[in-house]
Specification:
Blueprint lengths: L3 H44 L5 H5 L12 H32 L4 H13 L4 H15 L4 E7 L2 E7 L6 H25 L3 H9 L4 H29 L3 H5 L20 H9 L4 H37 L1
Antiparallel strand pairs: 1-2
Helix pairs in contact: 1-11, 3-6, 3-8, 3-10, 5-6, 6-8, 7-8, 8-11, 10-11
Length: 312
């Protein structure tokens, strides 16, 4: 049997090991936090002097003093609206089907495994997929020649090409697995007793989903969707892969127009050798961070608001 002295020695050794590991883990956290603080401080020092109304309301220019990011900001807003319009109905609908309707068999298991894997695929892979499918394959122009009452009629159908719609569809593929997974987790949090109570009152399957499941799952669905959009807004690799325009001096007016976006505009400024454009890039990063933080804050506020209503 162990003596009291041996036990005390081992206890002191374990406490020493615990303190060492505590400082190791704390150091690991501090390295990340300090690095982030230093990076943010450098961006603020370089970018704040360039922030102005002119910077937000003017187009890019070869001269740093005249350059702005209006076209990139407008293109980013277009991308987010189109991406959300494509992603939310498909993602939430797929989550409802998988959780409420789909049978538990090997096909469903394969779909679930693929969804988990697709959520971790690098964004450049989606960019190459969008380039091959939406830009090149669907971007081909089709010429149709036919006759009406003996008169030759020529019609030309132009595909997506390097347009906002192709970029939005690519980003939708990127964030769709995230929306589906987040929506499924939100639907799973609804107690089964709520469903059974609705069925006991005579409601059918869709009435239960519409009146019981979705209102309770909305906070999680909104949070997952906004966070997915936050990821999409900061992605540069997919839109670079599909060939977005770098220098744009117009605001898109339709989904089939050319475009640029904030990540691509920042990348363009960083790649320039002049020191002034690095300040512009830092200012663009600040604008992008403000948008991202606003979206995350909106997700938290919407979640809390609907959560209170659900609890009541």
């Amino acid at each position: 049997m162990q003596t009291t002295s041996q036990f005390n020695q081992r206890l002191a050794f374990r406490e020493a090991i615990g303190k060492v590991l505590y400082f190791v883990f704390l150091s690991a956290v501090l390295v990340g936090i300090i690095g982030l603080v230093v990076l943010l401080a450098q961006i603020l020092v370089q970018g704040v002097p360039w922030l102005s109304w002119h910077f937000l309301s003017d187009y890019p220019s070869r001269h740093a003093e005249e350059a702005g990011l209006l076209s990139a900001l407008a293109g980013t807003i277009w991308l987010m609206v189109l991406t959300a319009a494509l992603t939310v109905p498909i993602g939430v609908g797929a989550a409802i089907y998988l959780e409420e309707y789909a049978p538990r068999n090997w096909i469903t298991n394969i779909i679930e495994i693929n969804l988990s894997n697709l959520a971790g695929v690098p964004s450049i892979v989606y960019g190459l997929l969008g380039l091959a499918v939406f830009v090149q394959f669907f971007g081909l122009a089709v010429l149709v020649d036919f006759q009406i009452l003996g008169v030759d009629v020529y019609m030309r159908f132009t595909g997506f090409g390097r347009t906002l719609l192709a970029a939005a569809m690519t980003l939708a593929l990127l964030v769709l697995p995230i929306v589906i997974l987040a929506s499924r987790e939100a639907i799973r949090t609804v107690p089964n007793s709520h469903r059974q109570a609705a069925f006991a009152l005579g409601a059918d399957k869709w009435q239960v989903i519409r009146g019981v499941v979705l209102p309770s799952a909305i906070p999680g669905i909104l949070t997952g969707t906004i966070l997915a959009m936050s990821r999409a807004i900061g992605e540069a690799a997919p839109i670079i892969a599909i060939g977005a325009l770098v220098y744009v001096t117009f605001i898109p007016t339709s989904p089939l127009d050319g475009y640029t976006a904030l990540p691509l505009q920042i990348f363009n400024w960083v790649s320039r050798p002049q020191e002034e454009f690095r300040g512009l890039a830092a200012a663009g990063i600040i604008v992008l961070l403000v948008i991202l933080l606003s979206m995350n804050a909106g997700a938290i506020l919407l979640r809390d608001r609907y959560q209170v209503k659900t609890d009541d």
